[in-house]
């Protein structure tokens, strides 16, 4: 492809697998690659947004950091979908639980992503677009989580442009609408996938519940993250 490498991704065409796991933190991508994949090779170090390709039980899989916020994941997933012919991106990250029934360590499968962002304005739609997950990925993830006996919930999340907010009660308004958790990337991922005709899913481990003042210590976050990663790998490899 003449458009690869890109200003943000040093990979040559063909160096990235058709399925990509995408945590926000590039060091988390490095951890996933070194812990779960075999025959690992690094395809990107541009801006330290590390990317790796390897195999998981014989299936080619890539993992790459996506950064924080919709502008960042928007750039990386656009290039993956349009320039590298990636078919599937699964975001694996953390979230703040806001629904009363959501508990620490729960895995959230984001069926849809509400947002306070204007990311979708670029598509010039005559209305409001509803960013949703690919149902085949969502169904497979739910089945894998049940098999592993991982506590999970399926529903809407909020993809917010804001981490620090002036009014701490803003989240309670979304809670009233049944939104399960808040994060910062899923809506852009889902919109990019829809526009490209590709598949996407956002999986999140609940690391804190801001409305209740609860949070996991670092070691507990690692345990919950591992369960989510193993589930995501089973999904992209059609196992479980």
Written overview of the protein:
- This protein is of the alpha/beta class and 240 residues long.
- The protein is 32% helix and 28% strand.
- The chain has 6 helices and 10 strands; from the N terminus they run E-H-E-E-E-H-E-E-H-E-H-E-H-E-E-H.
- It has a 5-stranded mixed beta barrel with strand order 5-8-7-6-9, surrounded by 5 helices.
- The longest helix is centred in the last third of the chain and has 19 residues, at 218-236.
- It is globular and about 45 Å long.
- The termini are far apart.
- The mean pLDDT is 95.
Kindly summarize this structure in a few lines:
The protein has 240 residues and is an alpha/beta fold.
User: Strand order across the biggest sheet?
Assistant: 5-8-7-6-9
- Contiguous runs where pLDDT drops below 50 for at least 5 residues: none
Indicate the radius of gyration in whole angstroms.
17 Å
- Number of beta strands: 10
| Biggest beta-sheet profile | 5 strands, mixed, barrel
Beta-strand content bin: 25-35%
Task: Provide mean pLDDT, rounded.
Answer: 95
- CA-CA gap between termini: 34 Å
Question: Could you spell the SSE succession in H and E letters?
Answer: EHEEEHEEHEHEHEEH
Shape: globular
Family: Belongs to the PNP/UDP phosphorylase family.
GO biological process, one term: uridine catabolic process
Keywords: Glycosyltransferase, Transferase
Subunit structure: Homohexamer; trimer of homodimers.
